[in-house]
Amino acid sequence: MEVSSYEVKTKFAEMLRRVEAGESITVTRRGVPVATLNPFKSRRDAEKIRQAAADIHALRARLNLRGITWENVKTWRDEGRR
Question: What pTM does this model have?
Answer without folding.
Answer: 0.49
